[in-house]
Amino acid sequence: MNLKECYLQFGGDYESVLGRLRREQLVEKFMLKFLEDKSFAQFEAAMASGNYEEGLRAVHTLKGVCQNLSFTALYESSNQVTQAMKNHDYAKAMEMAPRLSEDYHRLIQAVEDYRRSGEE
Amino acid sequence: MEKQKVLIVDDSEMNRVLLTDILEGQYEVTEAENGRQAMEILNQNETDFWFILLDIMMPEKDGFAVLEYIRQRYWNDRVVVMMISSDDSPENISRAYSLGAFDYIGRPFDPMIVRKRIANTLLLFARQHDLEKTVREQFLEQQKNNDLMVSILSHIVEFRNGESGLHIQHVKAITELLLRQLAQCTDRYALSEDKIALISTASAIHDVGKISIPAEILNKPGRLTPEEFEIMKTHAKIGAEMLSDLPTDQSSSELVEVAYGICRWHHERYDGRGYPDGLKGEEIPIAAQVVAMADVYDALTSERCYKKAFSHEVAIEMIQAGKCGTFNPLLLQCLVEISDRLKRSLENVGQAWNEEPNRKQGSRSRQQTHSQQPGYKQLLYVDPLTQVYNRRYFQEYIQENEGVAAAILVDVDELKEVNKTYGQEAGDLLLRRTGETLQSLIRKSDPVIRYEGDGFLLVFSSMAKSTFQARLEEIGQRFRELTEQGWLQSSVSVTGFWGLGQSRTLLSMVASSAGAPQYPKGQVTIRFLDEKESGSI
Prior knowledge:
The complex is a heterodimer. Chain A has helices spanning about 5-10, 15-20, 25-35, 40-50, 50-70, 70-85, 90-120. By secondary structure, chain A is mainly α.
C-alpha cells in the first residue's frame, strides 16, 4: 500500500496535503506521528468522566490536527462533535461520538497497515 | 546575525512539531504547551523581541489570557502575536485582534504562507522600529543643539555680568515650578507641557540685552546714579530688539516670540509701574510675568556685587509685601504654594551645577552617563510615554548599585478603569502627569522608574530614615492635593520601603508588595514598611 492509497482508505485528501507540505516524506512523517497523538484518547476519557470542558478542548485539538493533515473524514466528524459541544448540546455530541470513533479507528487501522507494509 | 526568536504556544504536540518543522533553521524556535508556560518564557527574557504563534484554546491559561498579560505589561513593542487557532469563529478572531493580536493564520497550515507571513511581519516591524528610532534621534539631537545654543548665549551674558552661571539655572528652574503650579490653579493661560518647556527654555535669555550695557555700569559695586539706572533699564528693550531683528523665518518661531516677550517685559509690574512700556495686569504676557518673579526671587536670594544674599524666607516675605513691585495675585499665591519645593529644588540645581566637572572624570553613576548620551541609551532606558526610566534601566541600576537604602512605590490604581471610561489618551495623560509630578518632587540623582503599567518606583541611594519618612509623607500629600483638585480620580497608594542598605533585599520587599492590595476609590493611602519590622527578608 502506498501513501496515496492509505489516504484513500481512511477518507483523506492526499492531493491537498501534498500540495501544502510539498514532499511525500513529510506527509508520511506527520501521518505516522499521528499514531502518538493523544487527543482522541483524552476526549474519550473526559467524556466518560463527564468533564465536558476537557472533552471540548481535546476534540477541538483533534479537529485542528486533522485540518492540517487533510484527514477529511475524521475532520468532519470531529468538527461536528466540536460544534455540538460548543453549543453545550452534549446529547447530540454523544449521539455523534460513535461515528467519530469509527472514523478515528478506521484511520488508525489504515495507518498501522501502511506502516507494517513498509516494514515488510 | 542572531536568529529571530519564535515562540510556538499550542497544547497539541502535533501542531507544535508541524510548525517547528516549518520554521526551524530560519528561526530560533521555542515551544510552550499552554498559556502559563508562555508567560513564564516571556518573563524570563524580558528584553528580547519575540514573535509568538498563539493558539487560543489551551489548558491552564488560554490564548486570550496571554494577550491580556502582554497588554497589561505594555509589551506590544517587543512582542508580536499571530493567532493560529483552528477556531475561526468571527467572535474569537475579533476578540483576539482587539486584545492586540497582530494577525491570524487559518488552518490548514501552508508552510510557504506561514513562512512568508512571519517574514513580512518582521520586516514591517523592523522598518517601523528603524523609522521611529531615526525620528526620535533626530528630534533629540535637535533639542540638544537648541538647548546648547541657548545655554551658550545666556552664559555669554552671565560672563559679562560677572555673575555665576547659577542665575540662569535658577531662573529657569523657578520659572518651571511656578508655571506648573499656575497650570494647576487655572486654565486661563493654556499652559500645556510643551508651552511650559518652551517658556522655561526662553527664560534663559531674559537678560540678553545687557550685552549692550557698558561694563562700568553693569558691574558697579555701589548704587547706580539715576542716569546710570536709566541706561541699565534699556537692556529690556534692546534684548527684545535683538530678537525682532532676526530674519523673519527665525523671529516668527515660537521660541523667539516667547523670548521676545520675556526680554522686553520682564521688568514690567502688574500695577503698571514697571518698565520699559508700563504695561499693566494681563497686558503683560504670562511668560514675562513669571520670569519677572523668578528673576526677583533669585536676585534677592543671591549675593551680588552691591548686596548680600537674603534667606529664602525673607525673600518670599519681601515679594509678598510688594517690596520688589506688584505681582499678579495668582502668581503670589503660587509662589507661596511652591515655597518648600522651591527651597529644596534650588539646592539641587546648585548641587548638580557644582558636580558638573566631575562628570567628565568617568561615569560615577548611570544616571549621569545617560544624560550625556541621549542617543540609543535614551531609547533603551527611557519609557517613551512618561519619559522616566523603564524597568530595564531599573534592573541594571540595581545590579550596579548595591547600597540602595530605600524606595517608594507609587501605584495609580484603576488605571484600567480610566482607560475604559475616558479612553487610552486620558490614561496616558494620567501616567505622564504622574511621572512629571514625581520627578519634580525628588532629587535629580534619584531615578524615577516606571515599574509596572501603572506603578512608579522611586529609588534612593543614600538618605537618613527621618528624611525618607518626611519625603514619603510629602509625596503622599502631593497626591492628596492632586486628588482634591480633581485631576486624579483613581486611588493612589504610596508605599515606602526602608531597608538595611541591601539592594536585593529591598527589591524583594518591593516585588512582594507590588499590585497586591485594593484601596478605597479616590483616596491616597500612605504606608511605611521597615525591613526590620516587617521581617520579610
